[in-house]
Amino acid sequence: MVLDVEAGDILPAKEAIEIMDQVDLGPNIDVPPIPKEAFSENIPEDEKEFYRNEIKRLKEERNALVLSHNYVPSDIQELSDVVGDSLFLAQQGADSDADYLIEATVLFMNQMLAALKKPHQTVLAPDLGALCSLAAHADVSKIKKWKEQHTNGVVISYVNTYLEVKAESDFCCASANAGKVTLHVLKNTNPEQPILFLPDVFLGFYAAKLLESEGHSLDRLHLMMGACHVHERIRPHHVMEQQNSYPNAITVVHPECGCTSACMRQVNEGVVPEDLLQFRSTQGMIKLVSEVPQNEVIVATEVGNLHPMSKAVPEKTLIPASKEALCSYMKQNTLKNLYECLRDLKYEINVDAELAKRARIPIERMLEIV
């Protein structure tokens, strides 16, 4: 059966959940090749040493704060002042008084920081090619049309969206607080008000199941058909193969993954005990592996997150559910362009003042609900 549904479409939650594994949620923008210098072994030691020394020197000279996401190359993480997921970086960036905020991430995060920055601050990005396939699925025109059809509706947008989408939203959320934000909206709005959760349908499914567990109907909820092309390709067979190879391991899954529904069924049907299969945000995974007694951990997310996880628990064995889970956009950030960003103060991220004013409202609400 050919479905007349595509990425960016908005459907009632029950319908979206029923067909989400059948819709093509691949990227609708070009996925760039990963630069060879994104991998530490491809950079000569003397060149790495030069970049390290210069980046440290320039950070001090410029009064710059370098923030990086868990998915960027490990060399950048090691030189960053702050490493974390989107929620943590937004919190830390908003609290900083540094003159320059350099964020080695993908551009929707730089935009968010530019909307939150103080008047004296400048936000820079090492590479303008660091886009996001999930953010590209969030079609502003379809959101506006939904709002016209549901004049009293509430829009919750995942942080993985560009500022134009956030400006059309009532709340933002990160994977770390998606359930909390959705529950907050349910408890503080009229039961007749429809809710749109966008753009990640797998995270939307995860939030929907949390709502059901709290006794709420899904009839109010609408979901956008969107996905991260990296997480979406982590399928149930990847997880099951590793579980068969490591029967004593605990599995931790990012709720953006294409294996989310199957993994939740494993728990619900008693195939895997709940204490051996957990769902966590990028940052939440690091906390989890530090707390659990298991020495083997299967990790279903982008493989870059294994670096900060291994630093937290160097004695444990971390097994990627899929070694192919590499975000080409995050890997556009390299030591070379981070150095050039600090040296030349490029690329500055500016956002429209009115757009930033509107977007700050849902972003600040997200930062309050943690």
Structural summary, described in words:
This protein folds into three domains: 10-29 and 143-227, NadA-like (Rossmann fold), CATH 3.40.50; 36-132 and 329-355, Rossmann fold, CATH 3.40.50; 231-320, NadA-like (Rossmann fold, 3-Layer(aba) Sandwich). By secondary structure, it is an alpha/beta fold. The termini are far apart. The protein has helices at residues 13-19, 45-62, 74-79, 86-95, 107-116, 133-137, 140-149, 163-166, 178-187, 201-213, 229-232, 236-245, 260-268, 282-291, 306-312, 335-344, 353-368; strands spanning 10-12, 64-69, 82-84, 100-104, 122-124, 154-158, 171-173, 195-198, 221-224, 250-253, 277-279, 296-300, 317-320. The model has no long low-confidence stretch (mean pLDDT 95). Helix 4 (86-95) packs parallel to helix 5 and helix 9 (178-187) crosses helix 10 (201-213). It has a five-stranded mixed β-sheet with strand order 1-9-8-6-7, with helices on both faces. A four-stranded parallel β-sheet has the order 3-2-4-5, with helices on both faces. A four-stranded parallel β-sheet has the order 11-10-12-13, sandwiched between helices. The radius of gyration is 20 Å and the shape is globular.
Q: Secondary structure elements and their pairing?
A:
Blueprint: E1 10-12, H1 13-19, H2 45-62, E2 64-69, H3 74-79, E3 82-84, H4 86-95, E4 100-104, H5 107-116, E5 122-124, H6 133-137, H7 140-149, E6 154-158, H8 163-166, E7 171-173, H9 178-187, E8 195-198, H10 201-213, E9 221-224, H11 229-232, H12 236-245, E10 250-253, H13 260-268, E11 277-279, H14 282-291, E12 296-300, H15 306-312, E13 317-320, H16 335-344, H17 353-368
Parallel strand pairs: 2-3, 2-4, 4-5, 6-7, 6-8, 8-9, 10-11, 10-12, 12-13
Antiparallel strand pairs: 1-9
Helix pairs in contact: 2-16, 4-5, 5-17, 9-10
